[in-house]
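Quick log. Single chain, no ligands specified.
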Amino acid sequence: LNLESLDTIGIQRTYSRNSTITDSASAASAWACGEKFNNGEICKHAEGTPNNKTILELAKAKKRSTGLVATSQITHATPAAFGAHVTNRNCQNEIARQFILETKPDVILGGGRQKFDTDPSTDKDSSGCPQYDQDLVEVAQRGGYTFVQTGDELENATSQGKKKLVGLFSPAGMTPVYLREPTTTEPTLAEMTQAALKALESNTKGLFLMVEGSQIDWANHARNFQYQIGDLLAFDDAVGVV
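-> predicted structure:
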């Protein structure tokens, strides 16, 4: 495996601020913001204690290119922690809004198209989260992002030298590897990673890119061996690309 060829291996303690057993939100927030959070929090303390900036925000402040790539909804807990600050991980439309209007990663690739658009007649969803009253993909395009929905469109955009990309390849999470048909229009995690690097690496100041093989975790929750191995090997392919 490419994973086995890495020069450095890290060991971590994964308890959250309020639980021996972490969830993805507090775990990713610890990586992204360098401090402990309660389960469910995305780099923001519910009691109002100030929080650190994320590593992505710190990279942008140094004028480095930044990107997020995942096979879950791109607004899911792990990618969210690097580009947003909310007290409830379920506030995915608010996370999308912060991506597009506040933290502005140069490259945003994954699933979750439905999280970028909401019913403007409602102010809050069932989780009590705020809902933005515009389609955030359209807002992103007005802000200079190129929007793509298929692997071919992604390849064309990077071939044309596009540096700001939003790619949303499914309504929710992307299709698991073991269920993909040969005719799928969804890019692989390795292809998304390659595209992100192509868009980001020309910046002489450097880059920050977070890539998650999100559904390895989902497959473990489901106790589905075929699902787990398929997505693990797909993640390993992405490690090889990097």
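The longest strand covers residues 65-73.
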